[in-house]
Design brief:
This protein is an alpha+beta fold. 35% of the residues lie in helices and 25% in strands. It has an eight-stranded mixed sheet with strand order 11-15-16-23-20-19-17-18. Strands 1, 2, 3, 7 and 8 form a five-stranded antiparallel sheet that branches.
């Protein structure tokens, strides 16, 4: 089955869901029902809120409607007539969409609101009939609803209408849809495993981070253990960068809006910024990105070609005014920590510098236990060039440089049109986690437009000013988003070098406290993050507690161990103990604590 047909099948399933809701709950008001990864959803205002217990009844009604074998009948209707048609049906949300369509030529405030005026047929709205149910939609759909494959209603969530918390909160009904029952069953199994690994659940169980209503949604607070994870991962990235000639820089968290006006960010992102009005009448913003600040560090003085490239690294927070309804644990937050770096270099140095960054990315993700990295070239959309800075010629040069880079690296890169940043194309790296989900992780971006806007140059061999280029590089990107993925990838079992607590020593009885304390002191002195549990609790409970915290090594200290015998190390997640001679324990643990470089 083609991806286009699967998309049409899922889109049709969303219509059937709405038809079932109308049949079961007369008076329901319908928002939007788009296709998403692995299925579909529909935002609905029910006469009375439903619960997940109602999903089975909705799904059963969907199957009954599918058995009626309705065709998906497309009709076109003048917009004013369509507005009156949906107003008569009490579908006030559809009327809002149609009024936008009439006045602005599009309903697309959010990505899922995908109805646009046909430029060849203005003033006309497209509707689809599914039996008695009628919906505003451009399609595509399958010809008959009986073509819908295997599906299941999955979950309920809240969603503000059009993503605006000032609007009515609807109920978002999610459904899964696949070609075959086998594919659906496999995906449900994956979702069950993902639920066990949910980073929000594990973050609480492992005491890594917390959210506070007093602080505000989307603003995570990091515990000592969570802060250690962040710092250790950042140390790993920094060591890789330091070995390749980077220098650390630091910048403030606010800036005058003029900086972002010059960079082009203000026009594009002004609605996503936290703004500050000063007493003197200036407008400042909490920084949503770091690159414009770094241009000013580079531009503090003239640079000779002999000083090029200049490599700046900066792990710092940026802030974006995300909609409350779209926040999700660490995956989408308002305070975002970026392991940001920018290389200012000559055109002839681009390939070498980007290959160095590529090395860093591969070493880091291998060290963290991820598998193969797939590569995607995110390019601009020439049909919508007004979305980008610069000229078509500049973009052609930059994109050809990325193609050459992928060729030099010997990889086959998928090209994605329209996925570039507004200032330049990107090399995006994609990996799969341990349960098969794909994540876009690191990125390298080639920017020939920011240096132009800020007039960044170096003095070349002939004594002339030469326009430089800028490379943006993020290894983890957002530390919050990386950790949300990584916690779920590892199920909270971090590799030994990264675990906040690496070794737990558990005494059999009080007579073993002195020997356990001596071993603990030796481990800590060697830089191993070890804890001693010499409480009066029973040994079984001590071992269970260590397992609940997913500590990599648990070592029981009894008579044999106290007398200098071999240590039996209970390695979390393994059936067999690891046996280490007493004389080698500290050295072995210390060696395994080093960064995997």
């Amino acid at each position: 089955m083609s991806n286009d047909h699967l998309h049409a099948m899922r889109h049709t399933a969303a219509h059937v869901l709405a038809a079932a809701a109308e049949r079961l709950y007369p008076g329901s008001k319908f928002g939007v029902g788009p296709v998403i990864d692995n299925g579909f959803f529909y935002d609905i205002s029910f006469p009375e809120p439903i619960s997940e217990a109602n999903l089975g009844k909705l799904e059963k009604t969907m199957r009954r409607i599918i058995s009626e074998s309705h065709a998906m009948i497309k009709e076109e209707m003048p917009i004013d007539e369509a507005i009156q048609f949906f107003a008569d049906k009490g579908q006030v949300l559809k009327v809002q969409l149609l009024n936008d369509l009439k006045e602005k030529g599009t309903t697309k405030i959010n990505p899922e609101e995908a109805q646009d005026i046909d430029v060849d047929n203005p003033g006309v709205a497209t509707i689809y009939r599914t039996g008695e149910f009628v919906d505003l939609c451009r399609g595509p759909h399958v010809d008959n609803i009986k073509e819908i494959g295997a599906f299941k209603l999955w979950k309920l969530a809240g969603a503000y209408w059009r993503g605006d918390e000032k609007n009515e909160q609807l109920q978002r009904v999610y459904g899964l849809c696949f070609e075959t029952q086998e594919e659906l069953d496999a995906h449900i199994l994956m979702l069950e495993e993902a639920k066990k690994r949910d980073h929000r659940k594990l973050g609480k169980e492992l005491d890594l981070f917390v959210f506070s209503d007093l602080v505000g949604p989307g603003l995570p607070l990091w515990t000592p253990k969570g802060t250690f994870l962040r710092n250790k991962l950042d140390e790993f990235v920094w060591e890789l960068r330091k070995n390749r000639g980077y220098d650390r820089v630091e910048i403030p968290h606010i800036t005058k809006k003029e900086l972002y006006e010059k960079s082009g960010h203000w026009e594009k992102f002004k609605d996503d910024l936290f703004k500050i009005d000063t007493r003197e009448g200036h407008v400042f913003a909490m920084k949503p990105m770091n690159c414009p600040h770094h241009t000013q560090i580079f531009d503090r003085k003239p640079h000779s070609y002999r000083e090029m490239p200049q490599r700046f690294a900066n792990t710092t927070m940026v802030y974006r005014d995300e909609q409350t309804g779209e926040l999700h644990g660490l995956s989408r937050v308002r305070s975002i920590t970026q392991d940001d770096a920018h290389v200012f270099c000559r055109q002839m140095q681009v390939k070498e510098e980007m290959l160095k960054i590529w090395d860093i990315i591969e070493i880091f993700y291998k060290g963290c236990g991820f598998g193969e990295l797939n590569v995607r070239l995110s390019l601009h959309d020439p049909e919508q060039f007004d979305k980008y800075l610069g000229t078509p010629e500049t973009w052609q040069i930059a994109e050809d440089a990325l193609r050459e880079l992928a060729k030099a690296r010997g990889v086959s890169a998928v090209e994605e049109i329209g996925e570039a940043a507004f200032y330049g194309p990107k090399v995006d790296f994609v990996t799969k986690d341990s349960i098969g989900r794909e994540w876009q992780v690191a990125t390298i971006q080639l920017d020939m437009n920011m240096p132009e806007r800020f007039d960044l140059t170096c003095v070349n061999e002939d004594g002339d000013k030469e326009r430089i280029v800028m490379i943006h590089a993020a290894i983890m990107g957002s530390l919050e988003r990386f950790l949300s993925n990584y916690i779920e990838h590892t199920a909270g079992l971090f590799p030994f070098w990264l675990a906040p607590v690496q070794v737990r020593l558990a005494t059999v009885s009080q007579t073993h406290k002195e020997a356990a304390s001596r071993i603990h002191t030796e481990l800590v002195g060697a830089g191993v993050r070890a804890e001693l549990d010499d409480s009066d609790e029973k040994l079984g409970k001590k071992i269970r507690n260590a397992a609940m915290e997913k500590i990599p090594w648990t070592i029981v200290i009894g008579d044999k161990e106290a007398e200098g015998g071999d240590f039996k190390v209970n390695v979390f997640g393994q059936d067999e103990d690891l046996v280490i001679p007493a004389a080698e324990l500290v050295a072995r643990a210390s060696k395994d604590s080093k960064l995997p470089m």
